[in-house]
Design a protein that fits this description.
7-stranded mixed sheet, 15 strands, 296 residues, alpha+beta, 34% helix, Deoxyribonuclease I, Chain A, 2 domains
Length: 296
């Protein structure tokens, strides 16, 4: 029994170091951003290892584990506090799931009346339901992406410009200039591939270029398939002059709930008061995110 406990401690320590330190190398290789997704679990492994080393009176390894744990927690400081809720217009971000018929989304939107909705994985299963929402959301843009479906923006407010001019087919991005009370904003719906070993690295350069060309202020809702502290998220923040809204919101469940990942993000201009909370599944395998923005 003691032998197994020591083995588990060593495995937790090794895995924790790999998951934590490796997650800071996303600028050099996309595997870093894949590891960053699991940083919270790496910290849990290091906590377990620290406890095990303390029991076995391994002082040096105990304090080393504690130092790594503190460093990892500090690296998440921007996401550990959710901003105070603000009053303003509301954006609902939702990965709809390609096989979902969207009826739960329709009912939820009618009950809660968000002003703008950003969607991913929109397919022929969901398009008829979105068309039925035109009475409440007369301005809609749907842009083809991949086999899992396209990206979309639904708005109560008038979309300025020609229908679909912000659609970049096959990229996983659609944008629209929206006339909100008090001014104009640009809304973006994003769907990123998983980092490594999938196609996110080849997708990102064109997305960054497209974001840099947008007129601000920019608001982004999307399934990033990566976390707020990843290198890719930082690149998107820089290109769009935005910040991920603080708070850790677990939006994707794996392995029957054993693992939860905060991979759906909403971004707003850094100087705009904004808050966000996790919403319901709405028939998807992702939770929605409900964000609110105060008008500047």
């Amino acid at each position: 029994m003691i032998k197994y406990a020591k083995t588990l401690t060593i495995l937790a320590f090794s895995g924790g170091i790999l998951g934590l330190i490796g997650g800071f190398f996303g600028a050099y290789h996309p595997v870093g951003d894949s590891l960053a997704v699991f940083r919270l679990y790496a910290l849990a492994a290091l906590f377990f290892a620290m406890f095990g080393f303390a029991v076995w009176r391994q002082s040096l390894l105990t304090y080393f584990s504690l130092g790594l744990l503190c460093f990892g927690i500090y690296s998440l400081r921007a996401q550990l506090v959710n901003p105070t809720p603000v009053a303003g217009f509301t954006l609902l971000q939702h990965n709809n799931l390609f096989k979902n018929d969207t009826r739960d989304l329709v009912d939820y939107a009618r009950a809660t009346a968000p002003d703008i909705i950003t969607l991913q994985e929109i397919t022929t299963n969901s398009i008829p339901q979105l068309a039925a929402m035109r009475e409440d959301y007369p301005y809609q843009v749907i842009c083809p992406f991949a086999a899992v479906g396209g990206v979309a923006i639904l708005s109560k407010f008038r979309i300025i410009g020609e229908q679909g001019e912000g659609c970049i087919e096959g990229l996983g991005m659609v944008s629209a200039r929206v006339e909100v009370p008090g001014g104009e904003i640009t809304v973006v719906s994003l769907h990123l591939h998983w980092p490594w070993p999938y196609q996110q690295p080849t997708q990102i350069p064109d997305i960054l270029s497209a974001l840099e060309s947008l007129k601000g202020p920019v608001f982004i809702g999307g399934d990033f398939n990566t976390v707020a502290w990843s290198h890719v998220a930082a690149q998107i923040e820089t290109a769009s002059n935005t910040k991920v809204i603080g708070g850790i919101r677990f939006t994707k469940t794996l392995f029957s709930g054993i693992m939860q990942l905060p991979i759906d993000q909403v971004l707003a201009p850094a100087n705009w008061p904004a808050s966000a909370s996790r919403g319901p599944h709405l028939g998807s395998d992702h939770n929605s995110v409900i964000a609110q923005f105060a008008l500047n």
